[in-house]
Specification:
Keywords: Membrane, Transmembrane, Transmembrane helix. The chain crosses the membrane at residues 6-26. A hairpin with a 3-residue loop joins strand 6 (105-112) and strand 7. The model has no long low-confidence stretch (mean pLDDT 81). The protein has four helices and eight strands; from the N terminus they run H-E-H-E-E-H-E-E-E-E-E-H. Helices cover 30% and strands 32% of the residues. The longest helix is centred in the first third of the chain and has 25 residues, at 3-27. By secondary structure, it is an alpha+beta fold.
Length: 150
Amino acid sequence: MSDKSWRIFIMVVALIILSGVLYSALQSVTSFRELVPDRYSDTQKIRDISIEKFGDRWDDIQRVEITDPDMIDRIMNNFSEVKLIRTENYTIGTYYYIRINYEHTLLTIMYTEPDNMRIDLNQGTQHKRYSWTYKIASPFDRSIIEDLFN
């Protein structure tokens, strides 16, 4: 191969690698609204939200059931604006297991203090983005959930 052919080959390979890196970076940034189907934004159809708080010990579990429509709206609005960035390095503090019962279909959110979240649609086969843990990258009012246990 001539010198010119090698340069073209190297540029094509570099472009392919750069495209892959860019695609991966774009896939790692998302939001709660992008991950959760639109139907969950209709809070009138959410029957209840169950939140379990796991403390430092395994037997340190508290549970609260929310059926008040205003509180359900408040919780869902708080989550809906959250921006998320994929992470593999996260600390585990107090752990909240949040189940949203939408017309007999569960949406599960695993929220770990200080700022980690994982979303599970409980629908069998899912996109790989639902197996990732995300770091919350936008303002998030933790007190809405924390105050339920005080």
